[in-house]
From TrEMBL:
The lineage of its organism: Eukaryota, Metazoa, Chordata, Craniata, Vertebrata. Coiled coil: none annotated. One of its GO terms (molecular function) is delta(3,5)-delta(2,4)-dienoyl-CoA isomerase activity. This is ECH1 protein. One of its GO terms (cellular component) is mitochondrion. It comes from Chordeiles acutipennis (Lesser nighthawk). Belongs to the enoyl-CoA hydratase/isomerase family.
Amino acid sequence: LAMAPPFPRRGLETLRLRREREHVLHLELHRPEKRNAMSPAFWREMVECFQDITRDSSCRAVVISGAGKIFTAGIDLAEMSSDFLAVEGEDPARKAWRLREKIQQYQETFSVLEKCPKPVIAAVHGACIGAGQWGTGWGG
């Protein structure tokens, strides 16, 4: 059996991961000042956290919630727009190919939830906008 990674996990900007009780991890979207909007760091951290959670043999379930008054405001357009507008390429076809690759990287954030062998429960409260609906079964 794989050794359980240490929790709480250190060095997260947008998430807070902690052992809520024996066998249950609590992953909190943690940018309450931005209404838990999804920044570039969020997309990377979700993948890293769920890779750790998958390897954690002591974890049997994961609960996802949002800090503050709402679950999430969705994609942080102010921070994310430059990521998509700055796609480089010599011609439209190469730009489109690189944009497709970037979108696939972001899609992995949702795919890790689907691939997780443990039950993942979204404790949605308040607003849940746009990309926030990935874990709820309501959209995407």
